[in-house]
Amino acid sequence: MNYYKDSCPQAEDIWRVLSEKQTDRSFGMRNFRYIETIKEALERECPGVVSCADILVLSARDGIVSLGGPYIPLKTGRRDGRKSRANVLEQYLPDHNESMSVVLERFANIGRHFWSCFFACVGQTHCVKLVHCLCPEVDPVLNTDHADHMLYKCPDPIPDPKAVQYVRNDKGTPMKLDNNYYRNILDNKVLLIVDHQLATDKRTKPFVKKMAKNQNYFFKEFARAITILSENNPLTGTKGEIRKQCNVANKLH
After folding, report:
1. Burial code of 98-131, b = ≥16 C-beta within 10 A, e = fewer?
2. Would you say residue 122 has pLDDT above 70?
3. What is the pTM of this model?
């Protein structure tokens, strides 16, 4: 915290104004051109000082608040990597259709019970990821009304991955960060295989029930998970670089 107090005192104001301007709808935060807009503003004010990694973390912090979640004090001073590899991401983050054992195993290296808040409480899922629950037959485990809603949003048995076909992760409070996701999955209003497993696996169900019952507990655990994630093996000091442009390493700029 306060890492840029002397080197770029306007940094907090710049990314807060620009990121909040775009978070009127959550979809904007998923569009990386807004990260580039924040980066360009910071480069004009303090060239070569604020990393893209910090922009992402602090934009997420302020986005959480804008959606009704808690303010989470997060450290700054990260540096950017010089390379990005898809296989590394696949190694550490589980896919939507993997078993709960795989999920727990992969998250174990990040932090104890970190997985408990690493599920989508706000957002949407593309039809490509959930059509297997609907075709050729609707998965009988699904809540009937919820399944009808999914079929309405995803009518095609083979969705176009480039089409704007999504289902909200939480139909009740789609633009609010709350514990409704956990109540939904206990009621079989799920989108992904991993959602259903989270609510039924004996290792995870007790935590899901506690999250669903107590929003304050959810916020506490959510804040802890975000903190753990933001501090997971960052590049600092002389490691990495401060990118001039967030979507490409400096050597390729």
Report:
1. eebeebbebbeebbebbbbbbbebbbbbbbbbbb
2. no
3. 0.79
